[in-house]
Structure formats: C-alpha cells, structure tokens
Protein: Kynureninase
Organism: Sphaerisporangium rufum
Amino acid sequence: MSGLADRAAKLDADDPLAALRDRFDLDPEVVYLDGNSLGAPPRHVAARMADVIGRQWGRRLIRSWPEGWWDAPERVGDRIAPLVGAAPGQVVVADSTSVNIFKTLVAALRMPPLRPGDNGRDELVVDAATFPTDGYIAASAAELTGAELRPALPDELDGVLGERTAVVLLNHVDYRTGRLYDMAQATRKAHDAGARVVWDLCHSAGVLPIELDALGVDLAVGCTYKFLNGGPGAPAFVYVPHRLQEKFHQPLAGWGGHREPFAMAPEYEPAPNISRARAGTPDILSLLALEAALEVWDGVDLAEVRAKGMALTGFFAECVDELLGDRVEIVSPRDPERRGHQVSVRHPAADRLVTALAEREVIGDFRTPDVLRFGFAPLYNTYGEARRAAETLAGVLAAAG
Ligand SMILES: Cc1ncc(COP(=O)(O)O)c(C=O)c1O
Ligand SMILES: Nc1c(O)cccc1C(=O)C[C@H](N)C(=O)O
C-alpha cells in the first residue's frame, strides 16, 4: 500500500501540470473523478459571471448585444478551435450536442456526393456502441431524409462501408469503455468509400490533440461541459470546415444563422460562413461562463495534457490491479494510446459501489448495466487521488464481503 502512496507522491511532485489544479474551485475533501460527465469550475468563472450578470445584463441591458453578446458564438468557437485542430472561422458554439448532431447529419446527408456524379447513396452508418442520443438523433435524421441506418463500430468499418454509404457518424472515445478510436484511419476509410464523416468529440475535446483540419474531417460536434469545464448545460460546438460551409444546409434555419439576422427579412438566406450553423438566440449566460472557463487553457500544451492523462489512467489501473486483483474487471483498453482519459471497471454491483464510493467522498459514475466509470481530468486530478479512489473502492468491496 505504501509503495503506491510513495509512487503517487513522487508522480505528483514531478507533474509539470500540477500548478494548474489551483485554477479550479475544488473541495479538498472530495476526489472528483467525473470530469468526463461534468467538469469542475475554474475559480475565476464565478467572479466573471457576477460581472456578466451585474454589469453587462444589469447595467448595459439590451446594449450588450452589440457589445460582445451577439458574436459570442463565433468568438468562443475560435477559442475552442485550436483545441480541436481547426483554423479560425470554422467552429461555432450553439445549442446542445444533440441538436448539433441533428444539424450536421441532415446537412451531411443533403450535401452533394464526395465524388461528383456518385449519386444515390442512402445509408447512414452509426457507431454501434454510441451514447444513445447520437443513435436516436441519427434515426430521426434518417427518417427525415429517407436514409437507412446501419450500425458499425468505428474500428470495424471494413465490409460495412460501400457504394451505398453516404455519411458515417462516429464517437472519438466510447463513453462507456473509454476506448479511443483512430480518427485518421476511420476518416480515411470513410473517404475511400466515398462517404462523409461526422465525429462526436464529447469525450475527447480537451483530452488530446485533435487534428480536424489536417485529417480532412467533414464535420464534428462536441460538448463543452466535460473536459472543457464550461458548466452544466454549457452550449456545444460545431465544426464546419471552410471548404464545406457553402454546402452546409442545416435543417434548423432559424434567424441566428441568417445572412443578416437584423434585416428581419421574410425569406431565409444562410450566412456565408460558420454562422449558418447557428439557429436561435445564443444562451449568453452559459456561453460567457464557458468563455471564461476556456481561459484555463491559456499556455497549456495539449500534448502534456495527453501525456498526463495516459499516465494518470495507467497509474489508476495499476492501483486497481494491485488493490483489487480479479475482484473487478478493467474494461478500458490497457494500451494508453487506445484509451481516453477514463478507466471503466466492471462489477455486478457497480451501481451500489458507486453510491458507496460517493458516501466516502469519491465521485465516479455508473453506466448501465455494470460499469463504474472514473474520469481523469489532467488539469486538476492528481495521482494521489487515483490511489485514494482505488483504495476506497477496495475498502468498499472488502466491507461488502
Ligand atoms: C458521446 C456523447 N454525445 C452526446 C452527449 C450528450 O448530448 P447533449 O449535450 O445534447 O445532452 C453525450 C453526453 O451526454 C455524450 O457522451
Ligand atoms: N449531459 C449529462 C447530463 O445533462 C446529466 C447527466 C449526465 C450527462 C452526461 O454528460 C453523460 C455523459 N455524456 C456520459 O458519458 O455518460
């Protein structure tokens, strides 16, 4: 036991990102390992929101719209862009991930074929292990456009993609197992088959360097309340590269995406740029909380974040192996290169164990039917916390007999 404690102390002492933890408002009694569901608040966000509410809303009132409110979706999108490997002008923050999946899928299904003249593609391939909302929304987009759904895992696309495939919707990291898929390979496979690809980055944005532009990804969406720490219900982002913006005909043609919203014209005319991915009024309070939260990334090297995420999850897996042995099964990939910043552990009483851990101030979560998930946010989690979580889990299991 003390071997692990010593190792954790040494790893924390040598951690080049250790000082970043102080940027977050954390309860020192709590081991918070659920940043893959809801990230922790950066300290300065509360004061910023006091200004947004007290001054911008309270004093400037309606005058705040042209003073940085109306264009916040694009401005905050440009702050997220470098975190996902996108040049400016290609990311906008608006609506929820679910709504953006709908916009991007319908837009992708309506786009002209990747290869000119290659018409008649009518299949929408969807990640077979996806977080449910993606599957539900894909079904809805398919119903609306007449496409047919076909399930496939992101690393089992061979033999599935073919001349009928129009669009492929994939998760970069599996929400249940933490498995990280090869974006370069799957994107290439989709394109080789003549299909467009839409990536859901919910569990990878803020976790590792992502190269949307360099890989020629068609469209992407992601949420901002997990590893980007935007706060509960923070709006999601959409990526539409410059080369596809003119072809992006999304189904929610609201005034927010209009070329001239304040002309109040009777006919819809989409904006010529990323703004066409917007729909209605931006949720300013959440959006500006997210904007403030994104400042914690200033000067942070994503390669270092990734290195720590792999090391933290690896150390946690090692603690689980040593302290719990075969009483639980680690279902996340052992190879750190194929794992997001999450370790999932299987046990038949997972639900009860998560509750018992929370009673001991260790917060993870449960995913049906039998998975305990532990998310590691390298900006604020420590190796000491990884050890304490495994030790607490061992204690809870021992107490249960
Ligand atoms: C992969 C994935 N997609 C989408 C969502 C959620 O979508 P929304 O933000 O619309 O609730 C989640 C988590 O809630 C998720 O894990
Ligand atoms: N978005 C959530 C919510 O509104 C309530 C509770 C949990 C969530 C989540 O983000 C779940 C998460 N996507 C997951 O991976 O399970």
